[in-house]
Specification:
CATH superfamily of the largest domain: HAD superfamily/HAD-like
Oligomer: single chain
Strand order of the largest sheet: 1-11-10-9-2-3-4
CATH class of the largest domain: Alpha Beta
Low-confidence stretches: none
Number of strands: 11
Largest sheet: 7 strands, parallel
Helix content: 25-40%
Shape: globular
Number of domains: 2
Mean pLDDT: 94
Structural class: alpha/beta
Radius of gyration: 18 Å
């Protein structure tokens, strides 16, 4: 990965940005700093204002692991597209299939409640997001042990989900549900945008980062040698500067 605010990175950024590009962002760890309590995340005012400016000049999408309803409570700005549950919720054209995804999430929640009956005593919190289920263990006293318990429980689920690991969380999704990469490409096609710009921060965003092609510009918040993102930011606090560059070029 190349540091985005290096000379080479900025040259690539300024050469890519135009009004025909769809600008997509993850929420937690990208637009909002990670919080110990996921319910307490906050999108800084400077980022909200920059997104509002960007929305006037181009198509903006938020593609998040949260449910759409939960994400909107924290955003403070309404983008043209808001896709939740890692791509499974809110994608135009997938409305009928979302009913099946909801039934699967409800069934997995019931099974997990039986398999991990002690719940919070094991340090694991089961969260049904509507069309996906997340097993959180950030608050566990022994995170490796709790992750082991969580993954063993997932192995017993019927039907088996697609599992995406995150920061102290295992995300369970229907195997036939679209991922973030599929969601981004479909949004680009639907919006008539020839190019896509995406910023994310963890393994749940690798479905976008691994996509090939010159029509995509991918940025990761934080470094990871295994990541397929083309560029990186050192910290989440650099997001306002990134948005400033994009808005200035578009202006």
């Amino acid at each position: 990965m190349t540091y985005l605010f290096s000379e080479a990175g900025l040259a690539s950024l300024h050469g890519f940005v135009d009004p025909a590009t769809l600008y997509a962002f993850d929420l937690d760890g990208t637009l909002a700093p990670i919080a110990a309590d996921p319910g307490g995340i906050l999108v800084p005012d400077a980022i909200q204002k920059a997104l509002a400016r960007l929305k006037k000049r181009a198509v903006v999408a938020i593609i998040t692991g949260r449910s759409r309803k939960d994400a909107q409570r924290h955003l403070g700005v309404v983008p043209q597209y808001l896709v939740g549950n890692h791509g499974a919720e809110g994608l135009p054209g997938w409305e009928q299939r979302e009913k099946k995804f909801r039934r699967l999430a409800d069934e997995w929640e019931k099974q997990l409640s039986r398999i991990i009956p002690d719940g919070e005593n094991s340090g694991i919190v089961i969260e049904n997001k509507g069309m996906s289920v997340s097993l959180h263990y950030r608050g566990a006293s022994n995170r490796p042990a709790s992750r082991f318990i969580a993954l063993n429980a997932v192995d017993l689920l019927i039907p088996q989900p697609r599992v995406i690991g995150g920061k102290y969380v295992e995300n369970l999704l229907p195997k036939e549900a679209p991922d973030k990469g599929t969601a981004l490409l479909r949004l680009m096609d639907g919006a008539g945008c020839a190019k896509g710009f995406f910023v994310g921060d963890d393994r749940t965003d690798e479905d976008v980062f691994q996509l090939d092609g010159d029509r995509l510009f991918t940025v990761r918040v934080g470094t990871d040698k295994k990541s397929r993102a083309r560029f990186f930011l050192r910290v989440q606090r650099e997001i306002p500067l990134l948005l400033l560059h994009i808005n200035d070029v578009l202006a």
